[in-house]
Amino acid sequence: MSRPDLRISLDDATWRGLLALAEFYRTTPERMIKRWTEGEVIYRLGEMLAEMPAELDVPKVGRFVEVPVPEPYRCWTISDYRPTEAGESLTVSMMVASGELPPDFYFVARILRRWAEFGALARGTVRDRLASPACMALGGPKLTFGSGRRWALGFAVCDASGLTELGALVEFDGTEITGIDDLTDAREC
Fold first, then answer.
1. For residue 125, is it left (φ>0), alpha (ψ between -120 and 50) or beta?
2. At 83, is the secondary structure helix, strand, or coil?
3. C-alpha span between 136 and 166 (Å, rounded)
4. Model's pTM, two decimal places?
5. Burial 164-183 (b: 16+ CB within 10 A, else e)
6. Strands 176-182 and 162-173
């Protein structure tokens, strides 16, 4: 699925209205046009998001199925995805809000093809930055892709009873780690 173009036209009636508003608010016509354009982009992106189907086929990855989330978000998920040469299954989601660009499917596929590299980088970063004990296993990886090149990788902590809900969240912008959050109090094995 290719990314759709977003084209915005400014008709004469809207132009005249923006000129009148610029005079009324004692600002430049350029500022009024900029504000109008920003609002129009958010409105149109919301329409694009609303028109996206409930199932998305991502090339070289598979079919993502929409799952319920609160408004204004939409989320599509594929569970038990196993990248080539991966020793574990992943849960992969794409979540965007109204007014954001739809997911970049090709970026998602590129990141998943390099799962071994990014999984190791994220696990190593969690251990180094959060001073997690070496005996703490990080499992149940969940990747969530947002608009653009932002994505997050969450891990559950494995203990004797299995996976817990809390663990660590590593945030990325493209291929660079931009943040890490400790979601658990567990510091001992």
1. alpha
2. coil
3. 12
4. 0.71
5. eeebbbbbbeeeeeeebebe
6. antiparallel
Look over the chain and give the mean of its residue pLDDT values, rounded to a whole number: 81
pLDDT tens-place string over residues 25-63: 888 888 888 888 878 877 777 677 777 888 888 888 889
CA–CA gap between residue 182 and residue 51 (Å, rounded): 36
Tokens of 189: 């094995």
Q: Residues 94, 145: contact at Cβ < 8 Å? A: yes
Query: What is the greatest pairwise CA distance in the chain?
Result: 69
Cα dihedral across residues 19, 46, 52, 2: positive or negative: positive
- Rounded to 5 degrees, what are φ and ψ at 20? -65, -40
Per residue in 127-150, pLDDT tens?
888 766 555 667 778 899 998 889
